[in-house]
């Protein structure tokens, strides 16, 4: 910190009481300090970033506290693992999101190694019409007990649109007429709208986003990062 009183005059009570000459002298002192010790600026930036991160974490915790549905299974969510597990990992994802697709193998590996964990997957189609088609197909397939299978089929190839969905449905042995009807239903639309509203309410900025306890982890997290997030949220007696 630069001590302005050392310049030979008493600092005014308020910043707006500085004279132009005093302001110029302060600027000169700060510039010289930065030239002499550039780490001052780095330290200031680090402190600002840390403060912003603390505020963001606090805001996320408040938002999650006020929106408990973000941390629990809701109609239309895919739940993987032990439904009675004490630790829950929530993922908000878009089926067309390349980063969501990238983490699929890591999620499989995470669940394979943690029998005390359940994964709740909340779908939010935010990347355009093709995302909406795929999301509705997954929600509709849940009604035929093939939601996870449809999700995996649609997210592991490069097709898009109804032909893409029809092909996946045929491979999975789904009733195509029923699937189309459910895709256009008010119930499916409401489930997706609920998830999008929930994502806004808890200040999500993109997909995928993972939540465990009150901790939020955005982006294509690595398996190690996912394990660390889950470990932090797991009660010691449940590990």
UniProtKB/TrEMBL annotation:
InterPro entries: DSBA-like_thioredoxin_dom, ScsC_N, Thiol:disulfide_interchange, Thioredoxin-like_sf, Thioredoxin_domain. Residues 50-235 form the Thioredoxin domain. Gene3D superfamilies: Glutaredoxin. PROSITE patterns: THIOREDOXIN_2 (PS51352). This is DsbA family protein. It comes from Rhizosaccharibacter radicis.
């Amino acid at each position: 910190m630069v001590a302005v009183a050392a310049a030979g005059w008493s600092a005014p009570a308020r910043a707006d009481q500085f004279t132009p000459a005093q302001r110029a002298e302060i600027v000169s002192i700060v510039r010289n300090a930065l030239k002499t010790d550039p780490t001052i600026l780095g330290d200031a930036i680090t402190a600002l970033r840390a403060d912003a991160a603390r505020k963001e974490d606090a805001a996320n915790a408040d938002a999650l506290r006020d929106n408990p549905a973000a941390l629990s299974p809701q109609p239309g969510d895919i739940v993987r693992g032990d439904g009675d597990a004490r630790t829950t990992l929530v993922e908000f994802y878009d089926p067309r999101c390349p980063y969501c697709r990238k983490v699929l193998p890591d999620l499989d590996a995470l669940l394979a190694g943690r029998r005390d964990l359940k994964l709740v997957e909340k779908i939010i189609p935010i990347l355009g019409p093709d995302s909406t088609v795929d999301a509705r197909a997954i929600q509709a397939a849940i009604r035929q007990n093939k939601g996870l299978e449809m999700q995996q089929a649609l997210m592991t190839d490069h097709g898009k649109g109804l032909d893409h969905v029809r092909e996946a449905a045929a491979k999975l042995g789904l009733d195509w007429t029923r699937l189309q009807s459910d895709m256009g239903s008010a119930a499916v639309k409401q489930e997706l709208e609920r998830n999008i509203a929930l994502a806004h309410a808890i200040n999500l900025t993109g997909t995928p986003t993972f939540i465990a306890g009150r901790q939020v982890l955005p982006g294509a997290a690595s398996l190690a990062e996912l394990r660390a997030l889950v470990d932090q949220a797991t009660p010691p007696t449940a590990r």
